[in-house]
Amino acid sequence: MISVKELRYSIGKKHLVNGLNFDVYPGELMAIVGANGAGKSTLLKLLCKEIDFHSGEILLRGKPLAAYKQNALAKFRAVLSQQTTLSVSFKVHELVTMGRYPHFDTLPSDHDLDIIQRAMEETGVSQFSHRDYNTLSGGEQQRVQLARVIAQIYDQNEGILFLDEPTNGLDLRYQQQILSLARSLADRGYCVVSILHDVNIASRYADKVLIMKQGKSVAFGAPTEVINCENIHRAFNIHVKLIHDDEFQCSFVVLSSNLSIQTK
Fold it and tell me: Which of 7, 90, 106, 177 has its CA 20 to 30 A from that of 171?
């Protein structure tokens, strides 16, 4: 599990993360939402050990994050960064194999090769196995990267996956594919934490939602509890209304016809 207590991080006098508290359990997908500059990316960097927090506590699997060496952390925790284009040419299967690097020294075992194949099959990229990564579309590249991080933690009970805006720049079809895969990983017992810009996607796929503003928590809890007109207004400074969907048992946010945008 992931446990965060009174987490704080500042640059000078600016508090980028200010007193956050939350827990994510195996089998849960937590979405982090908020306006630009809310502190979402900084929070994810703290959770990924890219930067060190100033005070508070981050526990992974009941152990302080600082106590893990990077090679031990890489065996059960994977990070999918925002979509990038590689300057060096790699075949798809080579990239997915990189996800298993923490688990072997020289050559992948039969067990590693089996996981690599399964990860590619689950993400629908097996047919691209021998294609140059840079010849794929943005959505296909993102699925390859997801296969890589799935391969990294595939055989780890209660593995942890961090996703940094995994649907950024993707069309509706690929957004649905990526989030459906993330949802299926959570259903298999992983802890999944994802930054999302679309509140409606968070409402549809997440078990928990952390709404942030200026480094603080506006609200944290189940989507049905925290995605409401008041919290959206507090976080984004806009007026919205909710439409409940009986099929998905969640509410979707639409802009109010009386749109009001505040500058502060």
Answer: 90
